[in-house]
Amino acid sequence: MVLTDQEFIRIVNYVKNRYGIDLSQKKILISGRLGNYLLRGGYQSYGEYIREVEGDPNGKEAANLINVLTTNHTYFMREFVHFEFLQKVVLPWIKGKEGKRNKDVRIWSAASSTGEEPYTIEMVLKDFFSLDAGWDTQILATDISTRVLQKAKSGVYLTEQIEPLPDTWKRRYFKMRGAEEYQVNEEIRKEIVFRQFNLMDDIPFKGLFHVVFLRNVMIYFDDETKRKLLQRIYNHLDAGGYLFVGTTESIDRTAAAFQYIQPSIYRKIS
Ligand SMILES: C[S@@+](CC[C@H](N)C(=O)[O-])C[C@H]1O[C@@H](n2cnc3c(N)ncnc32)[C@H](O)[C@@H]1O
């Protein structure tokens, strides 16, 4: 099936306007991934498919489109420096701040993909607060793709995927399921609230976050989309709250008044 320039531009514009993702340099990716999906679905052309997506009022086909086109690469302990910083700097700050109040930790993994990121965060929290009763360590994990959220909720991973984790965590927080699979145990899974959320939209979540992980997702957004998103996140951070972006990313500090702490770590001035 041939992807004409016109069809390509229509798909690029649709995805850009709705999800902020810039695929203008990704013709091969689109034809590779979407081509297979269209053949399986019995479509005759990309044009026929785009018309269906654009005309679908409840957005079901748009969700399938985004499931096919997003890049969801992630792994446990990715960018370890953030988890170390969380444990050594951020959690002691939260403990000092909330310990005498409601013992509430508010963390958002804002492009959580298949779950490795929020589960790693939760394991750090469980370890940190293990001797300290009464803390609510439930965290929020969101992504635009329903496909990855479903996988994340199941908490099932191959043996090789949990390899980067320390052995104590593997023993404590996973149970074996067959020869090659492990599942995150209930104690950790019940602490993660997974929700579909488009980062282009207004943030509907109540309360201010202590920490937002916004890692390896802004690479797909243009400067204006990034600027608006960073401002919305700034407004939803607690005073003194932290923002982590991917270690190869940086933010334009004129976008919002974030204080630079070290590469890929920023803070809302308290
Ligand atoms: C490369 S993964 C990053 C996963 C994890 N944060 C990490 O650093 O390992 C990027 C994720 O961003 C999600 N994403 C892309 N555009 C989005 C949008 N507009 N709103 C929410 N999530 C989006 C994708 O579905 C994908 O799962």
Question: How would you describe this protein?
Answer:
The chain is of the alpha/beta class. The mean pLDDT is 95. The strands form two sheets. Strands 6-2-1-7-8-10-9 form a seven-stranded mixed beta sheet. It has a three-stranded antiparallel beta sheet with strand order 3-5-4. Strand 4 (174-177) and strand 5 form a beta hairpin. The protein has helices spanning 5-19, 27-41, 46-55, 60-69, 80-98, 116-128, 146-154, 167-173, 186-189, 223-235, and strands at residues 107-109, 139-143, 156-158, 174-177, 181-184, 192-196, 209-214, 237-245, 258-262, 265-268. Helix 1 (5-19) packs parallel to helix 3 (46-55) and helix 5 (80-98) crosses helix 6. It has two domains: 5-69, Chemotaxis Receptor Methyltransferase Cher, domain 1; 80-268, Vaccinia Virus protein VP39 (Rossmann fold). The chain has ten helices and ten strands. S-adenosylmethionine (SAM) binds at residues 19-21, 70-74, 78, 111, 113, 117, 143-145, 148, 198-200, 215-217, 220, 246.
Radius of gyration: 20 Å
Content-based structural category:
alpha/beta
Shape: globular
Strand-residue proportion: 15-25%
CATH architect. name of the largest domain: 3-Layer(aba) Sandwich
CATH level-four homologous superfamily name of the largest domain: Vaccinia Virus protein VP39
Overall tally of structural domains = 2
Q: According to CATH, what is the class of the largest domain? A: Alpha Beta
Number of alpha- plus pi-helical segments: 10
Mean pLDDT: 95
Bound molecules: S-adenosylmethionine
What is the fold-level CATH name, i.e. the topology of the largest domain?
A: Rossmann fold
Instruction: Report the uncertain regions.
Output: none
Order of helices and strands: HHHHHEHEHEHEEHEEHEEE
Strand count, sense and barrel status of the largest sheet are: 7 strands, mixed
The N- and C-terminal alpha carbons lie at a distance of 55 Å
Spatial arrangement of strands, main beta sheet: 6-2-1-7-8-10-9
The amount of helix comes to 40-55%
Q: What is the β-strand count?
A: 10
